[in-house]
Amino acid sequence: MTYNEIFAKSFTRYEQKKFGYWAIIGSFILALSSFTLLKPYLGPLPILNFRLSMGSGLTMLVLEDTSNSQPSNISSPRPLNIITSQPSNIVISSQQSNKSISEPSNNIGNSQQPNISSSSQQSNISSSQQSNKSISQPSNNIGNSQQPNISISKPLSLRTSQPLNTISSQPSVSDREVNLSQETQLLCNVSDPKYDFCDAKGDVRIHGSSSTVFAVSSKPGVLLGNESWIIKPYARKTDKTAMGVIKEISVKAIVGQEEAPNCTLKHSVPAVIFSAGGYAGNHFHSFSDIIIPLFVASSKFQGEVQFAITNFQQYWVKKFHAILKQLSKYEIINIDADDRSVHCFPRVIVGLKQYKDLRIDPLVASKGYSIKEFRQLLRNAYSLKKSTAIKISNGTPKKPILLILSRQRSRKFTNVDEIAEMARSLGFEVVVSEATMNLDKFSEVVNSCDVMMGIHGAGLTNFFFLPTNAILIQVLPWGGFDWVASTYYNKPTLDTDIRYLEYRIKEEESSLLEQYPLDHPVFSDPRSIHKHDWGLFKSIYMDKQNVKIDVSRQGRFRATLLEALELLHR
């Protein structure tokens, strides 16, 4: 008989059964204890692996997709969408959870939520679909119980193998953001169809002789750097003719000061780099491509900003000196001629953002930088005295003033004296003037008038100087100018307090009748000219056409002037 059999027989049948029950209960308790101890490690596989790395002088959040068995590509194949009014505050959303990260203090974490420790080494955080993780200062209000958020107030460097949507208060920007150190941040957008743009903060240096902007990191650590972008700082990116003459600015993210040139001049205010090339010689394009985008970029600094210009044109700076002086209190830097200096700034914006011709993005306008504020800036720049157009009433002794914009070359009125005489007969005081380069004087001429009329062209851009409730009359030459007329002048006036009227001439009012018969496609099918070639359209309808307005009592233009008078009664 074996020892086990002897041991078993030493217990009664009842005692053996009781012993078995206690063995089962003990096993259950042991299993429950093991499960409790191992529970934190038995959750589902993490969807995202977050690494919060805080090296020397650097705050960086790196996101990797670990749901794929293949190694993730840290570089983003598509630009990130980042919209930010404060580049340091970023809210990141994903499908599984919203994680917000505020600037970590020395005491990180929450007693009710998992701690995320910061160190120079990688820190892994596993999360389930319902988990909430936060790093915040006590004063910050972060998220809610239903949609967890994480906040970080220091600059972030974001890389992901999938597009990441960042939500904030400014318009959407597709870009790449590189953090060089705690002091230096670089955000570049080269995906917009209208412009390329970079915004560098921290230790930023402009080297004129090489046309290079260096964003410099002064501290080593875990960082992203040694990247570069080529920016042509003119907001007409797809126009090969305009962009062909624009000088390139190289923007480089540099790790280590030894690779960057030493500062020779230090500035305490931000800088904006833009080009005065392209179509800057055209009055319309000067406003649409440069002046209005520059107003949007620099107004928030309230004069505490310095302009650095490439493709520098002395005549252009002289022409718009009064406006530039309103936007900046500092001397303009000619990058092209400044080949020995290295200018160091706390922030440098390279390139200007354009929304639409002569218009401002409504999202930007809502923050106090609308066309109405731009018009007020012009009034201040040129000391314009007339704030409101005349309101005609029965007892009004003064006559409304009509300005007729004359032209010396193409698209000119061939019977301007007759037009002026008819206007006087209707009750207008008439001024005939050609738009000049001297905006100090011509802005006063425009501002003194209640109605301005002219044939489609750059001179109509001077409607910005008109007083409130004044009227712009655009005369459209023959040839299907409807789209350009609407886009360039009609729609922009909708953003202002200027009223708009339009007069389309008939075939008999065009000088083209002296060159082509009425059955020629120039008259019968202008669309075929449009489709064929813009250069041909411009040559025929813009460069070789003049206008003779029908001033008879039965003519349509008389009715247009009467409508303007009616508007001035309101």
What does this structure look like?
- With 570 residues, the protein is of the alpha/beta class.
- The protein is 26% helix and 20% strand.
- The strands form four sheets. Strands 3, 7, 8, 9, 10, 11, 12, 13, 14, 15, 16 and 17 form a twelve-stranded mixed sheet that branches.
- Strand 1 (48-53) and strand 2 form a beta hairpin.
- Helix 6 (321-327) packs across helix 8 (371-382).
- The protein is elongated.
Please give the structural blueprint.
Elements (H helix, E strand, L loop, with lengths): L2 H7 L3 H26 L9 E6 L6 E6 L14 E3 L8 E3 L4 E2 L65 E3 L5 E7 L5 E5 L7 E11 L4 E6 L10 E4 L8 H4 L5 E7 L9 E2 L4 E5 L7 H16 L7 E5 L3 H6 L1 H7 L5 E2 L7 E9 L11 H4 L5 H12 L18 E6 L9 H11 L2 E6 L4 H9 L3 E5 L15 E6 L5 H13 L4 E6 L16 H4 L1 H7 L1 H9 L13 H13 L2
Parallel strand pairs: 10-12, 13-17, 14-15, 14-17, 15-16, 18-19, 18-20, 20-21, 21-22
Antiparallel strand pairs: 1-2, 3-7, 4-5, 4-6, 7-8, 8-9, 9-10, 9-17, 11-12
Helix pairs in contact: 6-8
List keywords for this structure.
15 helices; alpha/beta; 570 residues; 26% helix; five-stranded parallel sheet; twelve-stranded mixed sheet
